[in-house]
Amino acid sequence: MEEVLDKKIEIDKSNWLPVKFGDVVFEPKESTKDPIGDNIEHIVGLEHITSEDIHLCNSNSIEESTTFTKKFEVDDVLFGRRRAYLKKAAQAKFSGICSGDITVFRSKDNLLPELLPFIVNNDKFFDYAIKHSAGGLSPRVKFKDLANYEFLLPPKDQQTKLAELLWAMDEVVEKENEVLENLNISKKAFEKKYLIKYRNGIEKKLSTDYKVYRLSEIAEITGGSTPSRNVQEYWNGDIPWLTPTDVTKHNKISLSRTREYITESGLRDISNRLYPIGSILYCSRATIGYAIINDVPMATNQGFSNFICNEKVNNYFLYFLLKHLTNELTRLAGGSTFLEISKSSIRRFKVVIPSQNIMMKITEKLLDYEKNRVELESKTSSSKALQKSLINQVF
């Protein structure tokens, strides 16, 4: 189906008719007082619907207690009417009961059920839903308001062709998602096998190719700080200054640009360290576990513990190892306002390091996984963008 994405899509709407959403869709009012007796198997809450995903993949089992009574059937679209800006609307491939914060959409005879999830999952529909929502902290929209949403509807024969096209594009995206998921599963299995976690007494069980070190023995570990915001001459210089926001929004290992830059005087003011290329800049406060390796010299704020590796460890290997050990490192954190790992705790933390030969082989494999992940995510993102563009173009 990949060839679908390469074709130029031209849509003739000359014989499409203007309709209101309520002309082609209704809200069924079916409910149950005895889910077990009615053989209900699936319970769906808002948390089970993924934003901007037309597929309903998650649910709870009927064995779990629930106050939900609203029924839905196969091919119904479940729309998150609370906080519509979250853009939650998915088509069910199973029947069940759902939350009162979900509105059930069902097609009338003049609309193919296969088209309904695409009509709902377009920016214009969500914008309309957001505009007509009422409430303060948790705004909700009613079906009677959504029923007035207007759009152009193709004749039934064209609906079939459009549905085939849109689902073909969706199949491409889903296949790419599946490949990416399998890659991530494979990577996690590899990490579990080859990135060994330290535990008490492990030294006696390790081969001669592995040694236990404290992190302070394999890297110099220091932190950063923030120049005074009140001194203009400290800011808008040419020295990259890293914050956790830069790292959490970055999905690659290396980074060369930051949102903010400081000056030489700003660097001197905070007695900050300019970390050399190849350092591991590791978030040790609040957003613990995020990290990058810098492609250019950088300073950081106080939310980081930064590693300059010595000859005992490869910086990329240690990067992957630290990420793998996020849960263990997080257990060291304390603090009332936000979690933070102290530098002393990090320096004392023990890790298992293989010989240089084994380390390089593990690192090469992990870098290969990372390269494939970035390429697949980029490809999937492009496919989703094209799919979204076509949905918006059609409806």
Automatic annotation (TrEMBL):
Record lineage = Bacteria, Pseudomonadati, Bacteroidota, Flavobacteriia, Flavobacteriales
Q: What is its EC number?
A: 3.1.21.-
The scientific name of the source species is: Dokdonia ponticola
Alphabetic keyword roster: DNA-binding, Endonuclease, Hydrolase, Nuclease, Restriction system
* Domain Type I restriction modification DNA specificity intervals: 56-181, 209-380
Among CDD domains, the record links this protein to:
RMtype1_S_EcoJA69PI-TRD1-CR1_like, RMtype1_S_TRD-CR_like
Entry-linked PANTHER family:
TYPE I RESTRICTION ENZYME MJAVIII SPECIFICITY SUBUNIT, TYPE-1 RESTRICTION ENZYME ECOKI SPECIFICITY PROTEIN
Query: What protein is this chain from?
Result: Restriction endonuclease subunit S
Q: Which Pfam families match?
A: Methylase_S
> Per its UniProt record, what SUPFAM superfamilies does this chain match?
DNA methylase specificity domain (SSF116734)
The family line of this record is: Belongs to the type-I restriction system S methylase family.
The entry lists its GO molecular-function terms as: endonuclease activity; hydrolase activity
